[in-house]
From TrEMBL:
The keyword Glycoprotein does not apply. Belongs to the aldehyde dehydrogenase family. PANTHER family: ALDEHYDE DEHYDROGENASE, ALDEHYDE DEHYDROGENASE-RELATED. Keywords: Oxidoreductase. Gene3D superfamilies: Aldehyde Dehydrogenase, Chain A, domain 1 (3.40.605.10), Aldehyde Dehydrogenase, Chain A, domain 2 (3.40.309.10). InterPro entries: Ald_DH/histidinol_DH, Ald_DH_C, Ald_DH_N, Aldehyde_DH_dom. Residues 13-468 form the Aldehyde dehydrogenase domain. This is Aldehyde dehydrogenase. Pfam families: Aldedh (PF00171).
Amino acid sequence: MSNNLKFYIDGAWVDPVVPNRITVIDPSTGQPYTEISGGSVADVNKAVAAARAAFHSFSHTTPKERLELLKTCLAIYERRMGEIADACAHEMGAPIGFARDAQAVAGQAHFAALIKTLPNFEWSEKRGTTLVVKEPLGVVGLITPWNWPLNQIVSKVAPAIAAGNTMVLKPSEIAPINAIIFAEIMHEAGVPKGVFNMVNGDGPSVGQKLAEHPDVDMMSFTGSTRAGILVAKAAADTVKRVAQELGGKSANILLPDVDLDSAVRQGIGACFINSGQSCDAATRMLVPRMMHDEAMAIAADEASKQTVGPAFGNSTVLGPLVSQVQFDKVQRLIKAGIDEGATLATGGLGRPDGLSGGYFVKPTVFGNVTRNMTIAREEIFGPVLSILPYDTLDEAIEIANDTVYGLAAYVQSKDLEKARAVAREMRAGSVYINYPEWDLFAPFGGYKQSGNGREYVDFGLNDMLEIKGMIGYGE
């Protein structure tokens, strides 16, 4: 029996207090895929009460017990990865291969990385006669996005469990089915009643109520900066801890010594991954002015090879955007680029030839972009690359940092020492040098309006723990 219309509260699948159906759209077709229930303040109250009631006993479990629980969760997760990938393909338009090898794998990888980290985690430290201990924080509210749903769900839920916290998850109502499968995994794994709870719904009805709830001790939010501000304001009255991973406008600086063809082509991948719907996408490519025209031509050529199509298409590289709202936003920003005088190297307005009905966007490259253009300042969240020329490396660094965001930055150079020097100047939480492999053991989070706090392994775990000093504890 499907649990799509139910919430998971206190170890059971329950009906909403007030019936409220939300249609989930398949972005490859623009047609309904399924329905879920939207929650209300009454559902949030039930879930928080369950989490609060479960906290005392769960917070007294040992780290070893919680580690074994995470291992069980991972084993069941791995068994259901095919279903998770299928859900991601249907509800967010991720090409099925990418949904399987990236979206579903991301959750698996975060479980595995934390499980590897936990045996060496220091839960206490002696400082003279003081014992410093790290203790469970309490009830944690988790709000996760639609673009990398399992990546964010697991990178919040797993450390919350590892810390001994209880929690209420509100996944995105745009891509919620993967989260329902995840809740089924938690249930099968034997997560104690009330430790993990899930309520679907929109931001105002569920997310804001969770953030302002007096019995929630921490909010962990991933999403837009605009929504993050609302969560922080809602949380402020109860002075709860707030960790946020928000928007980005990441610069990718190509130094003059790069292999231009390789650096630009890989830069397209770093910008277009997940159809450009990644907060850390390398959306601003900064190249030496004398190399600009060649870079633009290479980028246009590489972008034209990115086959756009439905999630289950055999040759699809880029799927659709997730929604009509997202499609309209990207079209508006592409038009702004054209109207403000950027050079349209490829792509542009409208859908690719032969595609209709879904939220498909032409892979787009702009050249001769200046730092004050809209496309250089606003987060686009689509397969749109802006190429900005620079004259000196100092100017490139200045342009790269000239943004309200600070989630990620990228540096390419054959000279590793030069790349490292530039990386030190980037005001961003993550700097990727020469397109490295994904590192699950690195901290993830941002400077400035890209948020606060850090996720992944022990960084995320520390954010979900309280620190207590017991002075005079003894030698």
